[in-house]
Amino acid sequence: MNRLPVWIDGDPGVDDAAAIFVAHDREELQIVGISAVAGNAPLDITTKNALCLCDMMQADYPVYRGASGPLMRAYEDGADFHGADGMGGTNLPAPKRSAETQSAWDALYEEAKKHDGKLEVVAMGPLTNIALALSKYPDLKNLIHRIAIMGGSVTRGNRTPCAEYNIFADPDAAQIVFRSGVKVVMCPLEVTEQAYLTAQELEALRTTEKGEFYYQASKHILAKNLEAGHEGFCIHDVCPVLYLAREDIFKGEDAGVFVETQSNLTLGKTVCDLYSDKQFDVKNTFVALEIDREAFVEAVSRAMK
To answer: Exactly one of 24, 82, 145, 236 is catalytic; which is it?
Structure first.
């Protein structure tokens, strides 16, 4: 099998952890690098968490430090959901190795050149690292096959009434990505909120070391999700990884998507023409709208073994 080369950029992060476990488990995918960005937690913590997850998987994927904050705005973390350590207070031990010395955007460019247009990029946090890479290296847009992101929404928000956190955290970076010319696969709240584990399914993971860690890291988010009316713990970040491995379990449509960067009221909104009479001139994004939840649960459960 020809495995897809995948670069993972994220802000681990409880749901990032599940996504990395799934990417590591999928025979269709080959992780070639992991870059950390400030988002759910500050950069030092997200970098440490990425290294600790590699230790847990006994994997030596190179981990790179990225941006410590947004391009033009103040940094806002996600500690209210992910905890101060980004991992629900599990207090992971010190990693066995350090991050690489090369910056995330330089390393991404070098890796993209190796794969000559076939590299898949998964972005599971603020898009700052990806925007910096695209801005520094204008030819990078021709060296990336797709950028699959967890972020945005067609109809609503979770950080504000109209903005999802990953896009709101750095809307200027997100706009660079959507305007880059690289094909974007957007997994918005509409699909990621279908990608959940019930309390019983989360409990069932506790038969392995990884599963027990994940239960402990996510049980407080499960409680918040149930309180908010969801049917379980929404593991948003698995969606873009699983899309690359199992495109067949998703349904969606091509659309034009851009990002509001000027208005205080709607800052970070992903403006999508999917349901509008007036259409953008370009369909730059595949918007995932449905996922086979049974296949999702199987993929997450398998990755925790």
So the answer is: 236
